[in-house]
Design goal:
By secondary structure, the protein is of the alpha+beta class. The chain has 24 helices and 17 strands.
């Protein structure tokens, strides 16, 4: 045999051996799954154990943002309704279209039907942390990591990046679906088939149904980047085959993304409609896509984390924004800019600087994750936002610092790969012991970095929401079903079960961001009359009936009357005010939810039905009049008078009005958004098409190889 032929055969054998080793390293047994699930549950329950014993989160967006949405969702489910409209935040907004409600997300559909709001929220948090660990571990196994190193990498990823964002429910949801989609992408590239593509599409769609699309968009980009960088190395080494394979892999992933988008149309189309009518316009200076970037100097938190950058003095002084070197002019905060993987994993990653380590990692995907991690960090700096904000998707989201989720997983995988090379020649017992020690030290390290003061939320033993049962303010307001409250702490008053202004919305109708729609909930000047005559007029027009303050008004407006002043079992816990009194005032001259013009024509009024998506009432008019509901007029609201469809005379703004003739009439306002119905149709058609597509694949006859190789002897 020639030397060339021998070398070729030897190279082929080595390649086959390496592929065989890679396949074996990725093989996952049932016992491996059991260990990963057990550790994932133990970490989730152990770290967040107070959530099991009636505790709850406070701080950040928990009570001003998420709990009012969850309460409205649970209330709708309890009444057998799909909660499409939220009538308690401001003058209402489409709950199903808002970017963080997630009323179609599977766990929300189940948990908020079965449990009370706080319990459902806690169970969701625990469940997603456990699932995020297990799915991150499973993807790490597909990256040629040993079982022990994959467990370590999953822990570094989940508990290094997400606890600092504890107040943002959508973050850990992304922690579940990001590694899940990467794992399914890897399976699709290695074994392209109908079922793999459909499972990936379902994963993309489920992430989109969670409602907050930033991490879903980052997940899609991460999967596409992984496919482009990975696919060329899985087959031939010829350049032509590499290019073709990369194109095919990227097309498969893009097809799965497209199918996932169509499956999630029930969520996406209403949100697209709201976005077009919202404040998220490039011409609006209040919306800056670069907000939430990571200043370049803050990257040093990878080394100087909890002992410098994340110390209380540095966080409170916002010192990370005081270094002008190549920094984006947009604002940010320590939560959005957080990135930390632990000192030991970082040290393992730095071992890549040694040529001997790189040589031993030649058959692993470390280069892919080094590229993806670096690209994510560069984008997190915010430098590229002035360009990318004009591209589809990029300009819709804030928070470039969130792209470091890719970096957190990439650095964790690299650390695990290096650890495997370091421990390769040691016994299994020694490998396990060393990895366990590293994991224990790293867990303490990363949890210390993601704790206060970086995290803007904390867990307390007794959830404030349980105080609603004994709240005197809630009891007072529920006596008036049409009450509308002006209160400090936007949206918190929603939890009393009444409408509340001012409002706090991430993606909200543009009307709420007009200067005329903004209210001061506290007196700007202690010596001034509050509210002013102009504000009293505007409050009447908005149907506000009550005012809530944390301090007694020195000069209350003459129209106000004090109902009661005392500590409240709910608000005092939310606001951490001890035994300080809360003050509730009434505005007797307020018109309430319904206004008649001219008012003198109204002889009788009676509420028949009052639900978020449907309002029915009866009026007796002595003459023709305009009957208005002091609610947001948004596309999808339809009106009938005496059962017959009528024409609304307003197309927007804070009033839903209809012209009514003299006499007794029943007026019904119903929310039937066309975007929702179209989205449901597209989602169902896509789901049926995917089922048909899978069915065709199963019906294809299989050829028995044994029969084709059988030689029939001649007769």
């Amino acid at each position: 045999m020639s030397r060339t032929g021998y070398m070729t055969r030897n190279a082929t054998q080595q390649q086959t051996t390496s592929q065989r080793k890679g396949t074996l390293s990725q093989h996952v047994t049932r016992s491996d799954w059991f260990v990963a699930i057990s550790i994932g549950c133990a970490l989730s329950l152990g770290i967040w154990h107070e959530l099991l014993t009636g505790g709850g989160l406070v701080g950040g967006d928990t009570y001003p943002y998420f709990f009012p949405q969850k309460q409205a969702m649970a209330d709708g489910f309890a009444h057998g309704e799909l909660p499409l409209w939220h009538d308690r935040t401001g003058l209402g907004y489409p709950l199903h279209a808002e970017s963080q409600a997630g009323i179609f997300y599977p766990t929300n559909q189940l948990l908020y039907r079965w449990f009370a709001v706080n319990t459902a929220y806690n169970v969701s948090t625990l469940l997603h942390y456990a699932l995020a660990f297990v799915l991150a571990w499973r993807f790490c196994r597909s990256q040629a990591l040993s079982n022990a190193s994959a467990l370590l990498a999953a822990m570094v990823f989940v508990y290094g990046w997400f606890p600092a964002r504890l107040s943002l429910e959508w973050s850990i949801i992304g922690g579940v679906w990001f590694p899940c989609c990467l794992w399914l992408t890897d399976r699709l590239i290695r074994r392209p088939c109908r079922s793999a593509g459909c499972f990936l599409a379902l994963a993309f769609a489920t992430h989109l149904l969670a409602g907050h699309f930033t991490l879903a968009f980052i997940t899609q980009l991460g999967c596409l980047g992984y496919a482009l960088l990975t696919s060329g190395g899985l087959t031939s080494v010829e350049n032509g085959a590499k290019t073709l394979n990369r194109v095919r892999a990227s097309m498969l992933v893009m097809g799965a993304v497209a199918a996932g988008v169509c499956l999630a149309a029930v969520q996406l189309l209403p949100t697209l409609e709201l976005q077009q009518l919202s404040q998220r316009d490039s011409s609006n200076p209040a919306f800056n896509p670069a907000y939430g970037h990571m200043p370049p100097v803050y990257l040093s938190q990878l080394i100087a984390s909890w002992w410098y950058w994340h110390s209380p003095e540095i966080v409170q002084s916002r010192q990370m924004l005081q270094f002008p070197f190549l920094m984006s002019p947009a604002d940010t905060n320590q939560v959005e800019a957080h990135l930390y993987v632990g000192l030991i994993p970082l040290g393992l990653g730095l071992c890549l600087m040694q040529n001997s380590v790189r040589q031993r990692l030649r058959a692993t995907p470390w280069k892919i994750w080094l590229i993806l991690s670096g690209m994510a960090i560069i984008y997190a700096f915010g430098w590229l936002v002035p360009v990318t904000k004009h591209l589809p998707g990029f300009g819709f989201f804030m928070g470039p610092g969130r792209y470091t989720m890719i970096s957190a997983l990439g650095l964790a995988i690299i650390a695990g790969l290096v650890l495997d090379t370091v421990l390769r020649r040691r016994s299994r017992v020694m490998q396990f012991m060393i990895t366990a020690v590293i994991a224990a030290l790293t867990l303490c390290d990363i949890l210390a970095s993601g704790d206060a003061p970086v995290c803007d939320a904390q867990i307390i033993p007794v959830a404030p929401i349980v105080g609603l049962e004994d709240s005197w303010i809630a009891a007072e307001l529920t006596r008036e079903p049409t009450a509308r409250l002006l209160a400090p702490g936007p949206n918190v008053g929603n939890l009393f079960g009444v409408s509340c202004v001012p409002q706090y919305l991430g993606l909200g109708p543009a009307e709420y961001f007009h200067p005329d729609a903004l209210f001061d909930s506290l007196p700007v000047d202690a010596d001034a009359v509050f509210p002013s005559d102009a504000d009293v007029r505007r409050l009447r027009e908005r149907g506000v009936t009550h005012l809530l303050t944390q301090e007694a008004l020195t000069h209350p407006a003459p129209e106000l009357e004090l109902i009661h002043a005392a500590p409240d079992s709910f608000l005092n816990r939310v606001w951490a005010r001890g035994n300080s009194a809360c003050y509730l005032y009434r505005l007797p001259s307020a018109t309430g939810r319904i206004a008649i013009d001219p008012a003198a024509t109204l002889s009788e009024f009676l509420w028949i039905e009052q639900r978020p998506s449907r309002q029915v009432f009866r009026v007796m008019l002595s003459d023709a009049a305009i009957v208005s509901a002091n609610e947001l007029m948004f596309p999808g609201w339809q009106v009938t008078v005496d059962g017959r469809e009528a024409l609304a005379i307003t197309s927007g703004g804070f009033r839903r009005s209809v012209q009514v003739a003299a006499g007794e009439h029943t007026i019904a306002w119903t929310y039937r958004p066309a975007s929702f119905m179209l989205g449901v149709s597209i989602s169902l058609v896509t789901l049926m098409a995917m089922c048909f597509y899978l069915g065709l694949g199963r019906r294809q006859p299989k050829v028995d190889v044994r029969l084709t190789n059988h030689i029939v002897p001649a007769s």
